[in-house]
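Journal club prep — side note

Before the paper discussion, L.F. wants everyone to see what a predicted structure for a comparable chain looks like in token form. Sequence:
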Amino acid sequence: PAAARPRSSCPHCGREILSGESNCPGCGKTISITHLQEPSVKPADKVSEPPAPGQPEPEAQPAPAQAAAPPIDDKHCPKCGKDALEGKSFCPFCGARLLRKPATSAAVTVEEIESPSVVPLDPQILGISLGALILASLTIVVHLAAHKFWIAAMPALVALGLAGFALVKNQLHGPGRIKLISALAIVLALVSLLSGFAGLILFILAGTAAGLLGLFLFLQHKFGRNVALSIVVICAFAFLIVFGFFLEKIAGFFLKRPASEEARWNLVVFSQAQTIYYTHNRMFATSFEDLGYELRNQKYYAYFLGPDKVYQPKDKTFKLPPNIEPYAGDSGYKFCAVGQLDDDPTLDVWCIEPMTPPFHEINDLER
């Protein structure tokens, strides 16, 4: 029968033909004897023949067993096998990066990407932490020089510890949620730094240096190194000139507050003592001895109850400026504090009279 004859396929259209046919029934082209003698299928791909009548059908061969997929393990590093702890992005032992599926299913696929043995650092955290570390260290040095270490430098000490913790955590565990810690260290260092005049000056200089560095990098990218360096040097000299011009006013601002507090405090205490004396004697005291008044915390001002009734500070001597006439009589008084807050000849004068608060007779910083 025709089904028992060997089969072949047309080399032109691929249709199966029986051996002995010279023309393809599909495309009609002539088939050479060589093609007719080639087997239509490879032995491995041989199509099974239907069984002869009366013969049992052959048993179906089972499909070859496929290798079972390795079990998913979300608790160990696929590179070193150590406990990588669920939820981490990097293995803390070998530094391999662990890619995980979203936490919508219980199973977590752990994949490995080739990475260096050193855990990669987050550059933002590294920069903020190093900045906080340097700023806190400079702040502590400033307060040590100003002899205000234990009060004003405490935030800087806390900032120093936070910055160090952020650096260590960044090194051991790779990127993590520690930017807030680094930013807090910066804020604490700034709070501690701005608590004094020297800290403010250092902060201004550091901020200007950072700004000039950023300007230099920008100009270098646009115009080249030489042009950028020239512009930055000119800007630095201009800043120093302007900064020197305002330095005296900045220093006066920081000196004015404690000096003014001293003057007003002593004037108010003197006025209260005079009020008590008047209540008992129906007259005001005309001298410090009669009043029993003694100055305390005297550092910036000399205190006049008259031209020859004066308390001078230990390291300075002040004279009354023109048109300032302190006095003490039975019916009233004018008690004056005379000091100097800058290097010009103008003096700073605060006065007080009965039933009045202290008033600024002459402002040294405005003349």
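L.F.'s comment for the group: Residues 2-44 form one domain. Keep this in mind when we get to the figures.
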